[in-house]
Automatic annotation (TrEMBL):
Residues 38-51 have a biased composition (Low complexity). It comes from Paraburkholderia madseniana. Pfam families: DUF3443. InterPro entries: DUF3443 (IPR021847). This is DUF3443 domain-containing protein. It comes from the Bacteria. Residues 35-58 are annotated as: Disordered.
Amino acid sequence: MRTMQSHIAGKFRGWVQAVVAVMLVSVVAACGGGGGDSSSSNSSNTLNGGSLPASPTQQPIAATAANTVPITVGVGVKGVINIPTVSVTVCPPGSPPTSSSCQTINNIQVDTGSFGLRVVGSVLNASLLQALPINTVGTSSTQLAECATFADGFTWGSVRTATVAIGGETTTAGIPMQIIGDMPSSTVPAKGCGSGPADNTVSDLGANGILGIGTAPNDCGVNCENVNSSNYFACPGGSSCTPTALAPAQQVANPAANFAADNNGVIVQMPPVSNTGASSATGTLVFGIGTQSNNALAAAQTFATNVSGDMTNSVYNGTTVTAFFDSGSNAYFFADSSLAQCGSNFAGFYCPSSAQTRSITLGGLSSTRASVSIGILSASTLFGNTSNFAFNDLAGQIGGSSSFDLGLPFFYGRYMYYGFATGGQAPYVGF
């Protein structure tokens, strides 16, 4: 994860992925749109003598079953490109999602590159926020908070317990989640909370929250059992916060791994879009893999991964890289000195003079290997139509050459599978 806005932004990968310097951009539209392609995908002017690989063509199923929910890419809350969102219902622990004490929050980003639910506190009703108990640590009931670090900053806020419902699925009990920005800036620890500005508002995030549904059941696992690498802080009296070790069961949790049923994975299904972009796109998030008639594992390729969903034995341009499928990144991000970068208007993005194709060989922890090709058009060309928010061929530079981020552009026209590291199941990804 992460997609951000305000011209420069960062990608959050949580606890296991090395933080990399990623530059993202938002395109604020003069007007919204209702979907559809804005122009021909085969325009010779757009390709400018280059070529693009054939686009995948899978269509999402209708989001009508209890284990589904619609995904929307569009103008959203801040006009951020390629940001997939769903609606999430948050309830006091133990309350059913039909209770009047619950609140349904729209524009929560779907992020397969992080783990756990995080909601900006300002979008919650005051009564609901008060009803969500603040989690504590230690024998003295010391308040628990978390600092989630980004390439360009961090989110800071309390850890609370809530029952979470998405579509027709509900967690079996209250689970830990982060409330972003509900603690004063004066409580941010001077050490151990990343660098850069605080991303604690809807405007900063470009969304009302983050739904982390990657392969891990919680956000930092064994890493946070070590106080020196923990994201968590003990805040006696709500201040004087210091790092604290935290067991996985107390960490911010992946809601989809805590549903009563359909809890072994997710499928992210996005429709095809034109190579020159679309004003919007509507897909489907399916819960469970092989648990219902609508979620069979039908991937042509699956890859065994580490707990965070990384394919650590991938190869690009002859170099071994860690590749990952991340719906929370709004472009492909990788290092390639042969691709021209954009100027300052779209810093960090690639702006080749003609359409380009690049290939990467994906490899996880097993012997499975598969080569995939991606298309790249100039970011300045794509951003020329300010009413478009869905792009399948946008790419940018990543810091270093050891990572290859297959962001949301890879998802269009595909079913993307994420098998959770729960119930004795080894984590995997596939498409």
